Amino acid sequence: MQQVQTLYTYEILSKGQTALIEKAADCLASSFIGLNIAGKLVQEPMVGLLNIDYEDFYQFTKEYIESTVEQGYCAVALDSNQQVVGVLAGDINAPEIIGEDVFEGSFSDMNVILHVLEDVDKRFLADYKERNGRELKDGEILHLFMLGVTAEQERHDVIKQLGSTLITKASSQGLKAVLAEATNPKSIRVMEKYYEMEKYKDVEGNYIVHKYQENSRLKDIPTTIADGTYIIIKEI
Fold first, then answer.
1. Each residue's pLDDT tens digit, 130-160
2. What is the DSSP string of the chain?
3. 213 burial class (0-12, 13-18, 19+ CB within 10 angstroms)?
């Protein structure tokens, strides 16, 4: 499945594309750890604050893609040299709450991020059950997990096309919604604008958010950069 755009082609990865999976993991890891694009620093706030290095995060993203790629929801943007310059990686699993540390050694700080994600996911799952009288099952929603773009040109178009590719597929396969954990205002704005997603409110009308200022490990993230991780959603 390919769509030809001005500068880039777009493709949904499959299991046998080992080289592209590695390039996709590199694109995501580079974006999250931090790199300069057109003179601006692109970085995920929690990853930027914590002691997480590229090699560990690359391995994490590669293993995530490898474990979910058969579901068909990892889209990449390729330049004319077949280099991956954008990735939107997702899955159709219901969020899993582990509730304990799973990462060790130099990657142990990833547990901080894991617990933030599990906090908002757990509250979303409880709210879903209250609304629907049952638990969320695998295969019902598309979970957008990681978005990374290293392209210097037409970045917004890359973001838009990656999302359109996956959301269109999710809709055609009968999924009910698209869900993500947005960790900073920039990602929220992007997904509001290009994917028509919005902050999720629980049955009491409150946003589901993990506030960084209330987390001892994340309180040094300036509120001007990000105030917390939000659940965002779009029904399809």
1. 999 999 999 999 999 999 999 989 999 999 9
2. -EEE-SS-EEEE--TT-HHHHHHHHHHHHHHHH-EEETTEEE--HHHHHTT--HHHHHHHHHHHHHHHGGGS-EEEEE-TTS-EEEEEEEE-PPP----S----GGGTTHHHHHHHHHHHHHHHHHHHHHHHSS---TTSEEEEEEEEE--SSSHHHHHHHHHHHHHHHHHHTT--EEEEEE-SHHHHHHHHHHH--EE-B-TTS-B-EEEGGGSTTTTTS-TTT--EEEEEEEE-
3. exposed
Comparing CA positions, the residue from 29, 30, 109 lying closest to residue 65 is 29
Compute the distance between CA of residue 25 and CA of residue 197 in angstroms, rounded to an integer: 25
3-class SS string, 92-115: CCCCCCCCCCCCCHHHCCHHHHHH
In this prediction the pTM is: 0.93
Fold of 2-235: Aminopeptidase (3.40.630)
27 token code pair:
């694109």
Per-residue pLDDT of 44-61, as tens digits, reads 999 999 989 999 999 999
Side-chain half-sphere CA neighbours of 18 within 13 A: 0
Report the C-alpha gap between 129 and 154 in whole angstroms: 40
